[in-house]
Amino acid sequence: MRILVIGSGGREHALVWKIAQSKLVDKIFCAPGNGGIAQIAECLDLKADDIFGLLDFARKERIDLTVVGPEVALSLGIVDEFGKAGLKIFGPNKLAAHLEASKVFAKELMAKYNVPTANFKVFDNPEAALKYITINGAPCVVKADGLASGKGVVVAQTVSEAKIAVTAMMQDKVFGDAGKRIIIEECLVGQEVSILIITDSQAVRLLASAQDHKRIFDQDQGANTGGMGAYSPAPIVTESVLKEVLEKIVYRTLDGLNKEGIIYRGVLYAGVMLTKDGPKCLEFNVRFGDPETQVILPRLKTDLVEVMLAASEGKLAKIKKLDWDPRACVCVVCASGGYPGAYINDQEISGLEEASGLKGVIIFHAGTKKVAGKIFTNGGRVLGVTGLGVGIKAALGLTYEAVAKIKFNKMHYRKDIAQKVLIE
Ligand code: AMP
Ligand code: GLY
After folding, report:
1. Can you say whether residue 201 is alpha, beta or left, with left for phi > 0 and alpha for psi between -120 and 50 degrees?
2. Could you tell me how far CA 305 lies from the centroid of its own chain?
3. How far apart (Å, rounded) are the C-alpha atoms in residues 387 and 232?
């Protein structure tokens, strides 16, 4: 088979790495890819949201299956366009992708189908939103309705922070139309976990649990990022927690979508807060998580291509329960200093070969490029250094041993990935 993967981050490197192990696969393309992906796939000069360019390429190159990494192409309807052209593609269609592209849509669906989530109110009008904050106080969470590259959520500890967020989103339009409508919701407290499943809207296959680290600095300090590290499995997701998440969040949502006439095919990622009143859904993503994918896929023994193909054809029921490596997996993200704010690119990276030579270590590239045989930084999140070990402690030790071998100017990484698990 000829596979096209869309995207350029660590998640896409992990996808390409896993797809390359499938006996079904002869050739992999990645649009646009990165310096690490280029070592195992042919990278294309096509942007991840250039739907018609990608469609043209898939037609000409007789691509058998396209796998979409990031949410933007999904929300623009890439799956609908490929479907019309008779091309197989793994991911939800435009309507189903609303679950991530519109937080109002997601929250209203959750409310309608009794999915536990934070209490919320939707606002189209800034004055009404500001008045609501004056009356109800803080803490509260202010969310832009539309896609805002992961920056559209402000967990406000004070009334003034909440009001600043409302003004920025609705009046200063910092996220453009994505902030025309906002949600103000109750602030939940607890540990956050990522539960991902693959579905064809009828059958569901569960992926291993994972936990992400969203803040830039140790002890969860500083700005929110795309994710600075992850580990799988998440020990806090016990059998009974998982059962509750599946029953109350995942199945109710899929059932609701089916009742609304929306066929959901692809990965469904539920961001869940484990509160003292039980699991509550914070948000849905309609794609694999980043960096969760970097710790989930190294543990997956089943052929991912068979699963994605079956899901895209509506035949997921024929796939058995997924098979997992019992080892733990940890990923530490090495970022450019300054990220998620301003940072510099084009710094040469050294130590990659030495680090990836350690047994059980895989280095997923996120923001890199290859120039004249050398690898340079090319993004905020640069590498996802990943290690597999018997238990989290062993996986962690190995991962940090690998990180210590890697160097680039202004490299920043968190030193406390998965520490929560060791303390408990
Ligand atoms: P979202 O894009 O909705 O996942 O929000 C980004 C991050 O904001 C989440 O991963 C949480 O850490 C935080 N967050 C979102 N909603 C809430 C909430 N209701 N209470 C507390 N934290 C939240
Ligand atoms: N790790 C969070 C996300 O992929 O959105």
Report:
1. left
2. 19
3. 11
Which residues are CB-neighbours of 149 under 8 A, at least 6 positions away?
none
- Under 8 Å between Cβ of 201 and 260: no
Closest CA to 105 of 131, 156, 49, 143: 143
Place 422 in a pLDDT band, splitting at 50, 70 and 90. Answer: confident
- Strand stretches in 200-257, DSSP E: 204-206, 211-212, 215-217, 221-224, 229-232
More confident residue, 96 or 150: 96
Q: How far is the CA of 185 from the centre of ligand 1 (A)?
A: 10
- Looking up tokens 């592209």, which residue turns up? 101
Give nearest CA residue, ligand 1 atom 8.
153
Count CB atoms within 10 A of the CB of residue 215: 16
Is the distance from CB of 181 to CB of 101 less than 8 angstroms? no
Position of tokens 């990180």?
403
Calculate helix-pair angle for 304-313, 10-19, nearest 10 degrees: 100
**Ligand 2 centre from 134 Cα, in Å?**
32
> Nearest Cα to 252, choosing from 276, 240, 233, 270?
270
Residue 3 Cβ < 6 Å to ligand 1: no
Q: What is the pLDDT of residues 304-317, one digit of tens each?
A: 999 999 999 999 99
| Full-model pTM | 0.97
Tell me, using a 6 A CB cutoff, whether residue 271 lines ligand 1. Answer: yes
320 Cβ neighbours under 8 A, 6+ residues apart = 302
pLDDT digits 0-9 by tens, 99-148: 999 999 999 999 999 999 999 999 999 999 999 999 999 999 999 999 99
Neighbouring residues of 419: CB distance < 8 A, sequence distance ≥ 6: none
What DSSP character marks residue 324? B
CA distance 66 to 45: 16
Instruction: Give the residue, by CA position, lying nearest to ligand 2 atom 5.
Output: 289
